[in-house]
Amino acid sequence: QLVKENRNRNTNTDIINQILTNLESCDMVVLQILIWTLLVISAQGESIKGEEKDSGEECKGLIKLISSAGHVKEYKEDQEHMHVKAFKVVLKGCECYRLYERKKNRGRSYFVNKIGEHNIPLKKVGSLAKVP
Length: 132
What we know:
Layout: H1 2-22, H2 28-43, E1 61-67, E2 72-75, E3 86-93, E4 96-102, E5 106-112, E6 116-119, E7 127-131
Antiparallel strand pairs: 1-2, 1-3, 3-6, 4-5, 4-7
Helix pairs in contact: 1-2
């Protein structure tokens, strides 16, 4: 499949090069529209793939809390009693989490709903909960 995608990209690049060499006498607006159209066409189907939640299948998610010293703690389930001085969080999978400054899901909170790394605006993490 990767070979096929690379061939499609090479074909699109060749087409763009041929068109650009033949468009010496075109109006600039037409050229801009053509370039934007080709960029959109060549970008079709290329997206970041994450885990998707299938109906009936439990979603697998993981959240990592990272301290300023570089210590990493991973969690997959709700935590009502914890004391982690984290400054970054990394979300993997398709679940969302809410981090709380105090125990038992109380106090200031931070909602983590996008896969990747986030800076935490909380002083500490006292509890965390999955959000459906």
